[in-house]
Amino acid sequence: MQDLISLFVKSIFVDNMIFAYFLGMCSFLAVSKNVKTAVGLGAAVIFVLGVTVPLNYMLNEYVLKAGALSWLGAEYADIDLSFLSFIIFIAVIAAFVQLVEMVVEKFAPALYSQLGIFLPLIAVNCAIMGGSLFMQQRGYETLAEATTFGLGSGIGWFLAIVSLAAIREKLAYSNVPAPLKGLGITFIIVGLMGIAFMGFMGIQL
Amino acid sequence: MDKSIITNPILKNNPVTVLVLGICSALAVTVKLEPACVMAISVTAVTGFSSLIASLLRNTIPNRIRIIVQLVIVALLVILVDQILKAFAYDVSKQLSVYVGLIITNCIIMGRIEAFALGNKPLPSLIDGLANGAGYGLILIAIAFIRELIGSGTLFGFQIIPESWYMANGGWYLNNGMFIMPPMALIITGCFIWLQRSFQKDEVKK
């Protein structure tokens, strides 16, 4: 249990998706103009990461890894399908996003009108794919660990986008040199926020 | 053929500094020049060929499922790149780690397929893809150049700053470790955008 909690805190702060690995930058910069939409996209990312990472974990564990197919019988034990992992992971993510979109549209139209435009964006959000690939690379051992990691990374991403959106809302009133306006200053702000988050780096959990 | 199809993506409409596409997997590989060059070449190849394939198939892909089809095309090419890197440049492939896989979700590739390849003939699509990849690679290599030179005093692993300058050898110089840290990549990119926009006044947005 203690391991899970430290993994959770670690994936939110120390290994923050945005500030430590630059994952999901495109939508992070594009959708952080106001806090409300940022909260919507952030929530969608938490949800999708929290589900696709464990799904891909199971696929990796029982289908893709070297020797993972041994549950089918001894003659399958030496098959290694890991070269297929990119295509399987992205297919799971795209299919899941499509599914969520349809379910939400059917049963919760109000939520759909809030989240709807962000859901298709998420299929090509690097943070989601990155979550699955990091899960595979770091070799998390149990389903609980993979789920915790997925949720933690999602929450880290959520915190990052909401705080950037809050800063950018305030920035509208400040006097920035014209060529630096918009994109340039946003990059520099994200860099400064990254430096602040580096304060967590030395923490051993 | 119009020359602007090549020059536009490299300078005026650079995918990274103007259109803000594909920064996701880009910045983390810019600590050293070598992985940055490998990444730039890989992305250029994938962008070019995925545009070519998508353009060849453009009349047969049903509109509703085109995103999935595009993802499959890109994923297949990325698997090829990954296997080639693992076979011929294992060390670099280890350094790039998950970022090779993340080429799939690089927005430049999907963006070019959606915006250009689906509406144009194969040859211009191939060139457009390659040029956009090159524009991306250019920024990547420029950032890596600055970060490696200031952060480690080397270029491609060769010592550039003379050894005798270092404090350890009685000199006055120290590498600026800050430039190896992730946030500096963002700040350098921000400065590039600043530079580019101050030279191209018409690009400045309100």
SSE run of chain A: HHHHHHHHHH
- Strand/helix succession of chain B: HHHHHHEEH
What's the pLDDT, averaged over the residues of chain B? 81
Task: Detail the poorly predicted runs of chain B.
Answer: none
Class of secondary structure makeup of chain A: mainly alpha
Number of strands of chain A: 0
Oligomeric organization of the protein chains:
heterodimer
Helix content of chain B: 55-70%
- Termini separation of chain A comes to 13 Å
User: Mean pLDDT of chain A, nearest integer?
Assistant: 83
Number of domains of chain B: 1
Query: Counting H and I runs of at least 4 residues, what is the number of helices of chain A?
Result: 10
Unreliable stretches of chain A (pLDDT < 50, length at least 5) are none
Biggest sheet layout of chain A:
none
- SS elements, strand count of chain B: 2
Beta-strand content of chain A: under 5%
Beta-strand content of chain B: under 5%
Tell me the number of helical segments of chain B per DSSP (H or I, 4 or more residues long): 7
Question: Strands, helices and their partners?
Answer:
The complex is a heterodimer of chains A (205) and B (206).
Chain A: H1 2-14, H2 17-21, H3 25-30, H4 35-64, H5 85-107, H6 109-115, H7 118-123, H8 126-138, H9 143-171, H10 183-197
Chain B: H1 4-10, H2 33-56, H3 66-88, H4 90-96, H5 107-115, H6 122-152, E1 154-155, E2 158-159, H7 182-199
Helix pairs in contact in B: 1-6, 2-3, 2-4, 2-5, 2-6, 3-4, 5-6, 6-7
Structure, described:
The complex is a heterodimer of chains A (205) and B (206). The two termini of chain A are 13 Å apart. By secondary structure, chain A is an all-alpha fold. In chain A, 45% of the residues are buried. Chain A contains 10 helices and no strands. Chain B has a two-stranded antiparallel sheet with strand order 1-2. The longest helix of chain B has 31 residues. The two termini of chain B are 34 Å apart. Classes of the chains: A mainly alpha (205), B mainly alpha (206).
